[in-house]
Fold this protein.
Amino acid sequence: MTTVSTYDVASNKTGEKEISLDLGDQVLYRTLKDAVVMYQSNRRQGDAHTKNRTELAGHTKKPWKQKKTGRARAGDRRSPLWVGGATTFGPRNKRNWYYSLPKKQRLVALRSALLGKLQDSEVRIASGLSFEAPSSKAARAVIAGCGFEGSLLVVTADQNENVWKSFRNFPKVSICTAAELNAHSLLAHKWVLAEEGALDVVAGRLGNSKES
């Protein structure tokens, strides 16, 4: 059993709740590191690109004759030795940085990240997190009521457009569904606000029991 702080959106009251999650006994830091590196690598656009001699604009005329000028030999102005010339061994946009860890390893990383958040008391469960219409004012009240300072990750049980539109414009606040939750998103934020039932979905992904 793990005790988690709760927040009632309707009454603006806080409390505690016991949840039953089998997340292991220790945080697997090496697995977490491998998962975070994978997610960060997959976000790389790889659009850094330098031009070689064939791509650089300009003529190929020899700037001066080969001998009897007292100057160093030069073939064309595209030489990497010249200012404005080509780049040797520079980054190219042909590299694909994407790779994937096994699914079981990604779930183990998610389990360890959630365990670390629960151990540090950085998880809140929000009941009644449902807005009739998008409202930044209501979202701001929830953040203030929970006393969050710093980055925040809002986890919903399923797709909720009104909640997503209410939180999306706040700086340092991200929102995702429980099905999309991963280790990197947990570690990239200080606090986690989980909609009631969201941890059930995460527990189902991890093969654990539900909230008590």
